[in-house]
Specification:
By secondary structure, the protein is α+β, with helices and mostly antiparallel strands. The protein is built from six helices and 15 strands. This is Aminomethyltransferase.
Length: 282
């Protein structure tokens, strides 16, 4: 696969003596485990533990490079600036990330850990200003196959917990590094095992409806459809409700389209076989 351009991505560069300590105390990613040449998922949460911004983060000369949707970049930069106070950190916005995806390992290419864990090596680089081929469809297909959800096409800000979008399994959420915004809530969810919503792969008997359609089990809502390409899609659903529906032979649908739902194999998750006790999302 040749290198292909990804539009609508911006970069925020965080440099300076305090860059790592500032970010380590804010975002979900454990930067102490982030190595050069690697790209990891991350999020900035609300104090209630909901995902406010999602992004990809890598090490760069003198600091970090944060790859984020263009639509979120300005607001995220303002939020970081608010937290920065007098810390020795320089924050600069590059509105066009010049991002590209590909499979060829070469200087400057970063390994996306999300796809590595899914057994689908996909690299990213940020010097693609001369690349004309559009990678949007290829990237969407890869996300649908791997079960990788992103803010915007799959969920709105402040709607999901990190567990809901598999950050606890793809290297984007730490339970060991110490405090960060929203950490107490997600740690409680982890230790109590109260995560009930998860990203699932959706396969329709026919073309799926548009993103935002309700996913139902036995006619009752259990989640929402996210990214779609033809009869394939992603959804965030209550997996305990799916398990209950499967156990009782109840139909699953997205809108009016009958569907099959599956958890990404790389996660090791499965639909509960016994009806779960009603667990509140913290």
């Amino acid at each position: 696969m040749p290198w292909m351009r990804l539009a609508d991505r911006a970069l925020i560069h965080a440099t300076g003596a305090d860059a790592e300590s500032l970010l380590q105390g804010l975002v979900t990613t454990d930067l102490g485990q982030l190595v050069v040449g690697e790209l990891r998922a991350g999020a900035l949460l609300t104090p209630q533990g909901k995902v406010l911004f999602d992004f990809l983060i890598s090490r760069s000369d003198g600091g970090f490079c944060i790859d984020i949707a263009t639509s979120q970049a300005d607001a995220f930069l303002k939020r970081l600036t608010m937290y920065k106070l007098r810390a020795a950190v320089n924050l600069t916005l590059q509105p066009d990330a010049a991002a590209a995806i590909g499979l060829e390992r070469e200087d400057g290419a970063l390994s996306d850990v999300r796809f590595e864990k899914a057994g689908m090596p996909l690299l990213r680089r940020y010097d693609a200003s001369t690349i004309e081929a559009d990678g949007a469809e290829i990237y969407l297909s890869a996300r649908l196959a791997a079960g990788i959800a992103e803010c915007g096409p799959d969920y709105p800000p402040q709607d999901v917990f990190p567990h809901d979008i598999l950050l606890d399994l793809n290297g984007g959420l730490s339970f060991k590094k110490g405090c960060y915004v929203g950490q107490e809530v997600v740690s409680r969810m982890q230790h109590r095992g109260t995560a009930r919503r998860r990203v699932v792969l959706v396969a329709g008997e026919d073309a799926l409806p548009e993103s935002g359609a309700t996913v139902t089990a036995g006619g009752k809502p259990i989640g929402t459809l996210g990214s779609v390409a033809g009869a394939q899609g992603l959804a965030i659903v209550r997996i305990d409700k799916v398990g209950d529906a499967l156990a009782h032979g109840q139909p699953l649908a997205a809108g009016s389209v009958p569907v099959l739902l599956g958890l990404p194999a790389w996660t090791g998750l499965s639909f509960p076989e016994e009806p779960a006790e009603e667990a509140h999302q913290l």
